Amino acid sequence: MNYPTNVKYTNEHEWIRLEGEVAYVGITDYAQAQLGDIVFVDIPTEGETLAAGDVFGTIEVVKTVSDLFLPVAGEVLEQNQALADQPELVNKDPYGEGWIIKIKPAADADFGALLDAEAYKALINE
Questions:
Q1: What are the distances in angstroms from CA 94 to CA 2, 24, 29?
Q2: In terms of Cα–Cα distance, which of 39, 44, 84, 97 is closest to 65?
Q3: pLDDT at residue 65, as a whole number
Q4: Which CA distances in Å does 108 have to 4, 21, 104?
Q5: Which of 14, 43, 70, 75 is least crowded, fewest Cβ atoms below 10 Å from its Cβ?
Q6: How confident is residue 104, by pLDDT bands cut at 50, 70 and 90?
Q7: Average model confidence (pLDDT) for the chain?
Q8: Is residue 22 pLDDT above 90, yes or no?
Q9: Which residue segments constitute the domains of the chain, with CATH numbers given?
Q10: Does the CA dihedral 102-55-98-47 come out positive or negative?
Q11: Sheet of 74-79, strand order
């Protein structure tokens, strides 16, 4: 498993990486491995402002559909258009080309409530 230290993690297996005013959000390496082959990513919330923990979309695998939860409050700016034709990028490179959305975090976004790599690793190895 891959646990980058430049991202923060949620208990629901999403990650977030802040780059200036914009944050990238995706699912963790652990999550994609547990889900299996991803066949579709649906993000109906583009342009919406959501609270931390709100569902921002779904990810579909061969046998199930899973909700995606926003790690911090913010506005969904854009979805990764590459996933429309290549949803398997989430499996191949979950922290890079397989990012799912970009958000503009709210002014009061609570990054401190998220897990660092060590805490996330402890969570999934419980």
A1: 9, 11, 6
A2: 39
A3: 95
A4: 24, 13, 11
A5: 75
A6: very high
A7: 96
A8: yes
A9: 8-107 (2.40.50.100)
A10: negative
A11: 8-9, 14-19, 22-27, 101-105, 74-79, 49-50
**Cβ contact 96:80 at 8 Å:** no
What is the CA 80 to chain-centroid distance, rounded? Answer: 11
Neighbours of 51 (CB within 10 A): 10
Query: Tokens 């990028």 belong to which residue?
Result: 89
pTM of the model: 0.95
Q: What pLDDT shows up at residue 100? A: 98
**Mean pLDDT across 82-97:** 97
Distance separating alpha carbons of residues 43 and 67, to the nearest angstrom: 10
Query: Are the C-beta atoms of 74 and 109 separated by less than 8 Å?
Result: yes
pLDDT in tens, 46-74: 999 999 999 999 999 988 999 999 999 99
Residue carrying the six token digits 């649906």: 42
> Under a CB-based contact definition with an 8 Å cutoff, are residues 22 and 77 in contact?
yes
126 pLDDT more than 80: no
Residue that the structure tokens 């419980």 belong to: 126
